[in-house]
Design brief:
The protein is of the alpha+beta class. It contains seven helices and ten strands. It has a domain of 136 residues. Helix content is 19%, strand content 10%. The protein has a two-stranded antiparallel ribbon with strand order 1-2. Strands 3-4 form a two-stranded antiparallel sheet. The chain starts with a helix and ends with a strand.
Length: 304
C-alpha cells in the first residue's frame, strides 16, 4: 500500500511539473523578426509588395501573404541540402504557384539564403546569442550564422544544412500514422509513449495549417516551417491538438531559434535519468534514436 501511494505521489509530482509550465519571455516574442524596428512589415508589406519595402522584385508584388521581400533570384533554383547534396530541392518558379514549398521554404530563403539572395538585412548571427539570451557556454564564443550558403565555409555550401524539400521525407511507424493529409498517434504504441514524455509539436495538426509538405505521391516531407515557427522566437504554447507531455494545452515553454516546440539549450544540468528538450525535439522525426523507440519508456523531459 505504501509503495502504491509513493507511486501515486511521484506521478502527481511529475504531472504538477508539467502542468506548471508558465514560461514568460524576457524579450518581445517576435525577436529577430522585428527586423531592426521594421516589425511585421519587414516581411509582410501592407502595400505594394516588394516595392513597398524598398525591394525591386516586380514578380513578387502583391502576390503571396503581402510578401515584402524580393524572392526572385531563387525562382526555379536547385539547392542541394545535406549529406553531400543528396537532398536536392528544386524551388518553385514563383510565389503564386500554390506550392507548399513557397511559404515553407522559398520565402524563408528569400531572407536566410546568403548565396543567391545576398542582399538582406541580417547580421548573420543568432539573435539570442547576440543579445545574451544564450548562456550555455558549450556554444562557444564564435557567432552562430543565420545565412545558409554563407556560413564561413565554402561559398554556396548547403550540404551542412538540414535537408528540406520533397526528398526529405518524414518517416512514420511505431504508432505515428500519416493519413495522407495529417499526422496522428495510435494510443498504446511506442510513439504514444514518446508523446507522453515530450510531445510531437512539429508534426501534430496545426491550428491554421499543417507544418509539413506532401508530395504528389502522398509522402510527407520537411519544410523550414516544420521545425521553425517564424512568428514566435522565444515561447512555445501548447494546445489541445498538440499537448506537451500530456499537459492538456495552454501551457508555455521556453524555446530558442524560432524552434516549433519546447527547445531550451540553456538547460545543461540534465541527468541521465531525464532527457533535454533539445534532444527530444529532434526525436519527433528521428524516432529510431529515441528512448521509446528502444524500449526505454520512463525517461521524462526537462523543459526549463
Amino acid at each position: 500500500m505504501k509503495r502504491a501511494m509513493l507511486v501515486v505521489l511521484f506521478v502527481l509530482a511529475i504531472a504538477g511539473f508539467v502542468m506548471g509550465q508558465t514560461y514568460s519571455s524576457p524579450v518581445d516574442v517576435l525577436g529577430a523578426h522585428n527586423n531592426n524596428g521594421r516589425g511585421c512589415a519587414g516581411c509582410h508589406q501592407p502595400h505594394s509588395g516588394a516595392f513597398g519595402s524598398g525591394q525591386k522584385g516586380a514578380a513578387d508584388s502583391g502576390s503571396y501573404a503581402l510578401w515584402g521581400q524580393d524572392a526572385s533570384p531563387l525562382y526555379g533554383a536547385t539547392v542541394a541540402f545535406g549529406d553531400n547534396g543528396a537532398y536536392t530541392e528544386v524551388l518553385p518558379t514563383g510565389i503564386a504557384t500554390g506550392s507548399q514549398e513557397v511559404g515553407g521554404i522559398l520565402l524563408c530563403l528569400s531572407c536566410h539564403d546568403g548565396n543567391l539572395t545576398p542582399k538582406n538585412m541580417m547580421a548573420n548571427q543568432s539573435y539570442e546569442q547576440k543579445i545574451g539570451l544564450l548562456t550555455n557556454t558549450a556554444y562557444g564564443s564564435n557567432p552562430i550564422p543565420t545565412l545558409l550558403g554563407n556560413d564561413g565555409t565554402t561559398a554556396g555550401n548547403y550540404t551542412n544544412d538540414h535537408p528540406v524539400g520533397q526528398l526529405a521525407n518524414i518517416s512514420t511507424g511505431s504508432g505515428l500514422v500519416f493519413s495522407g493529409t495529417k499526422m496522428s498517434v495510435t494510443p498504446g504504441t511506442p510513439y504514444a509513449q514518446f508523446v507522453a514524455n515530450y510531445g510531437y509539436p512539429a508534426l501534430a495538426p496545426g491550428k491554421w495549417s499543417q507544418p509539413f509538405g506532401v508530395t504528389a505521391g502522398g509522402k510527407p516531407y520537411v519544410l523550414c516551417t516544420t521545425c521553425h515557427n517564424q512568428h514566435v522566437m522565444t515561447v512555445y504554447t501548447s494546445s489541445v491538438a498538440s499537448p506537451i507531455a500530456n499537459d492538456g494545452g495552454g501551457k508555455y515553454y521556453a524555446t530558442f531559434f524560432f524552434v516549433n516546440g519546447p527547445y531550451n539549450p540553456n538547460v545543461n544540468n540534465v541527468t541521465n535519468a531525464n532527457a533535454p528538450s533539445t534532444t527530444q525535439f529532434c526525436r519527433q522525426c528521428h524516432f529510431g534514436e529515441s528512448n521509446e523507440g528502444n524500449n526505454t519508456n520512463n525517461i521524462t523531459t526537462v523543459f526549463q
